[in-house]
Amino acid sequence: MDEYCYGIDSEINSSRLSEFSSFINEGVEGDLTNNFTTNEIFSSRENLIEWVRGIAYNLGFVVVTIRSDKAIGQPERKTFVLLGCERGGKFRKYKSDQPSTYGTRKCECPFQLRGKPSSNGDGWVLQVICGYHNHDLAETLVRHPYSGRLNSTEQPILVDMTKTQVTPTNILLTLKQNNDHNVTTIKQVYTEGIHTNTHSKGQELKLLVTSFGRILMQSSY
User: Fold this and answer.
1) What is the dihedral of CA 140, 145, 146, 151, to 10 degrees?
2) pLDDT tens figures, 23-51
3) What is the 3-class SS of the chain, one letter each residue?
4) Max CA-CA distance within the chain?
5) Of 1, 8, 3, nearest to 127 (Cα)?
6) pTM score, whole prediction
7) Is the Cβ–Cβ distance between 55 and 36 less than 8 Å?
8) Which of 24, 116, 190, 216 is the least crowded, having the fewest Cβ atoms under 10 Å away?
9) Cα separation of 37 and 136, whole Å?
10) How far, rounded to the nearest angstrom, does the alpha carbon of residue 164 sit from its chain's CA centroid?
11) Which residues contact 128 (CB under 8 A, 6 or more apart)?
12) What φ, ψ does residue 54 adopt, rounded to 5°?
């Protein structure tokens, strides 16, 4: 077991270890541990996640944040981010009569990574918990709904360009020029643009109502 899953600590409980053991015993092929093993010190949590997602994209799967915590001024807690395959975990039913496997991509994939601050506090380091998947990796992530989402750097670009009435086609072109790994589709740009315009109009309406209320209050004196 130890030769397959590295760096398992108190965040991984005994039931999770049992899942890993049964998974390995099935004779799964393809260990991606080496792909994510690095001595690099990342400048921030965001840079670490971006690096991981870039590697995962090239390999054919999507990495999501499972859990994270920032223990500022709380010595009993630890700052960390736990990353995993999007197909990890189980499907959760929100309705009692909903089929358990309805449209789900979840298959309890055990792949997990952990990011944490370096010992000297100068950056973040990456640790592989388990480098295996229990499913085939995708040949391409183009048009994948999650991989096409905008990151924290791209979102403000889309908002600013939408407000200045740049066409969705040119917005998409700019995003792809800035990020070689970007697989956002024109449909996603249209959708994000609609959300941006709706939010902007909502804010304008709030300001208008507030201003109108002030005028009424002033006129009553």
Assistant:
1) 100
2) 444 444 568 999 999 999 999 999 999 89
3) CCCCCCCCCCCCCHHHHHHHHHHHHCCCCCCCHHHHCCCCCECCHHHHHHHHHHHHHHHCCCEEEEEEECCCCCCCCCCEEEEEECCCCCCCCCCCCCCCCCCCCCCCCCCEEEEEECCCCCCEEEEEEECCCCCCCCCCCCCCCCCCCCCCCHHHHHHHHHHCCCCHHHHHHHHHHHCCCCCCCHHHHHHHHHHHHHHHHHHHHHHHHHHHHHHHHHHCC
4) 81
5) 8
6) 0.60
7) yes
8) 216
9) 21
10) 28
11) 6, 7, 33, 36, 37, 113
12) -65, -45
Tokens of 1: 């077991």
Angle between helices 154-163 and 186-219 (to 10 degrees): 60
Token pair, residue 143, equals 């048009």
Interatomic CA distance for residues 28 and 165, integer angstroms: 51
Give per-residue pLDDT as tens, 140-198.
776 666 667 777 788 888 889 888 888 989 999 998 898 877 778 888 888 888 877 66
The Cα–Cα gap between 81 and 14 comes to 20
Enumerate the domain spans of the chain. 1-141, 148-221
What does the block give as tokens for 167? 């066409």
The token duo for 182 is 């970007």
Q: Which phi and psi angles does 130 have, rounded to 5°?
A: -150, 130
